[in-house]
What we know:
- This protein is α/β, with parallel strands linked by helices.
- Helices cover 30% and strands 16% of the residues.
- The protein has a single domain, classed as Alpha-Beta Barrel (TIM Barrel), CATH 3.20.20.
- The chain is built from eleven helices and 14 strands.
- It has an eight-stranded parallel β-barrel with strand order 3-4-5-10-11-12-13-14, surrounded by four helices. A two-stranded antiparallel ribbon has the order 1-2.
- Helix 3 runs parallel beside helix 5 and helix 5 (203-221) runs parallel beside helix 6.
- The longest helix has 19 residues, at 203-221.
- The protein starts with 10 loop residues before the first strand and ends with a helix.
- The model has no long low-confidence stretch (mean pLDDT 95).
- Bound molecules: flavin mononucleotide.
- Flavin mononucleotide (FMN) binds at residues 25-28, 58-59, 101, 177, 179-180, 229, 266, 270, 273, 299-302, 321-324, 349.
Amino acid sequence: MSSNVHLLSPVKVGAYELPNRIVMAPLTRNRASAGKVPQSLNATYYAQRSSAGLIISEATQISPQGVGYPATPGIHSQEQVEGWKLVTDAVHERGGKIFLQLWHVGRISHPSLQPDGALPVAPSAIAPAGEASTYEGQKPFVTPRALEITEIPGIVEDYRRAAQNALDAGFDGVEIHGANGYLLDQFLQDGANQRTDEYGGSVENRSRFLLEVTEAVTGVWGGDRVGVRLSPSGTFNDMQDSDPQTLFDYVIGALNRFGLAYLHLVEPRVPGMSLEEPNRPDLPSSHFRSIFNGTIISAGGHDRDSGNALLAEGSADLIAYGRLYIANPDLPERFAANASLNTPDRSTFYGGTEQGYIDYPTLELQSA
Length: 368
Ligand SMILES: Cc1cc2nc3c(=O)[nH]c(=O)nc-3n(C[C@H](O)[C@H](O)[C@H](O)COP(=O)(O)O)c2cc1C
């Protein structure tokens, strides 16, 4: 691979020519309205970050059942579509591109967040270790209800409708959130999926739901405007699997048939995101390079140098930045100037208002 490839070189991703290889990672910030509708505050935040080659939105519920946290946005009502138009218009006005991340949390929810106080749903009735984030603070996870096989087509349809809504809201594409222990990942990994029907057991069966969702979503958008995010090494949200390498080798190979815009991989040992689990093998993007035939985005713990090194080595095509994007709205400009970076303030990551959201200064403001 050519070492001329670097963060600021242009790249073709699916249907789009992007001006650089710097991606804003999906970041839940819990600042939608009480009705889970995006607002002008959110439009300002995303517009400030529109010099990214690609923005991936915060995870967004495909249905009222898909919710897992306070004040996260949805894409299942007309009001939400209208709210997201504020965001897509603001990003497009500044020349940016934005994909919506499609989300169903499965068992990482709580009855107090669910319609009619229902139990969260999951592949199997297995409670994850840990606590749910509710409007009344942290509460132990409950044992979820295992989905009936007859309910699965309805959830695939929720993904399809949400993808259609994202198209109507003016997004440039969608990313299917198959990472970090949420519903699709719960189906993939056998620590959460102990079904005995055709959605459980073999790696082929456990991959079936993700592949059906991908089929439905690419049916709306075409493969070249759809990405899939996976975290093969992640144990966040109590994920466990007896043989993650065999599982992810299979599922990533199976995704080739869709001609996706990209595969988005969370790298091993993302600081602060995954628990150390000694028996979990490291499955970095370099491992999947020969299995996936398309564009790869690498996320997790990157700075400017590690991003450039991975691109030069050829293990990934774009680099996603999470926490650095929270604090540096003009990250490409800062990387271009090799300028210093603002430090993200953890206390304002999840929830709140303007503070810690739209008030991080650009380089230009700092030097004025
Ligand atoms: C505040 C915060 C919110 C996040 N929200 C999401 C999300 O909505 N969807 C997702 O796939 N990952 C989410 N992540 C994970 C990030 O996309 C990224 O993978 C992680 O932060 C590691 O990258 P970094 O080291 O550049 O921050 C979140 C991370 C943080 C810190």
